[in-house]
């Protein structure tokens, strides 16, 4: 008998809606009784685009229990087919790595894999989630959580904001998982100096979320570097919704090809250097936008940054930076270029600078690098 998706609208930051609509749907999904997809919140165009990817009228592929629409940060989003076994394996391995099951604070969108995995972990641990309200203080949300081990997951921008505003509340968690985008080493050092038990996570929707913690794969997960970082193990997705050709390319021979550049040291620890597709070639030299962004954020005049490339007749591609000024500051290209040059070399120094009010994000919480580039044309 054909199975079809149950579509649930994203509830935003409403605890009542999460507990009444999304969390029970996740519970049924993990039990294998009701295949699920959570629609993104926001503009009708985003919901329409998700519908186009999900195609709920079409029968669902065998074995899939959850379909998650990727952010489309490098193009059109895709529907990733995840079995309940992959979600449960990820949640169990996460608790094993962190020191045991606990209660979770949901501070991320429930339509993306990072937020959905918070809900899955809660189901596996037997704890209903606490939801951080839209304008709620982090400390107030922590006070509402049950006693015992407490966990949350954030993107780097959230970690930075809460370190600025509520570092004591952050230190109340037994673990703060940070993923979704490259995390600056300086930010991690600052968090750990403040007593925050932060752990970096690497993974994607196709691996049921983070599957490498602080460079070390979760139990059962295997990682190698061939044509970029490749991942195998029990947390892998089945493939892409209604895209057998794309599935065959990305998931060949039981390994998922991430298209991320990376390296593995002699202790087996993975370091990810950024997207292979994102690398800029300026003057014949490879430049990783994430590394330039990290260097810019270390400058006293810069609160946040996004870096991308534009065609250049002389250099092939020129490095373009869009930065959020620190309070009271006015960043200047003449100051930022030597700053980046000293840290990464001259080819990485921006040749064009734009000042923006904030870095926009995708529904996953990741920086919308493509959106910034298109908005500054």
TrEMBL record:
MF annotations from Gene Ontology: o-succinylbenzoate-CoA ligase activity
EC number(s) from the headed UniProt entry: 6.2.1.26
Q: Give the AMP-binding enzyme C-terminal domain ranges.
A: 292-366
- Please name one Pfam family that this protein belongs to: AMP-binding_C
Ordered alphabetically, the record's keywords are: Ligase
Q: Which residues form the AMP-dependent synthetase/ligase domain?
A: 58-217
InterPro entries assigned: AMP-bd_C, AMP-bd_C_sf, AMP-dep_synth/lig_dom, ANL_N_sf, ATP-dep_AMP-bd_enzyme
Does the keyword Ligase belong to this entry? yes
Q: What is this protein called?
A: O-succinylbenzoic acid--CoA ligase
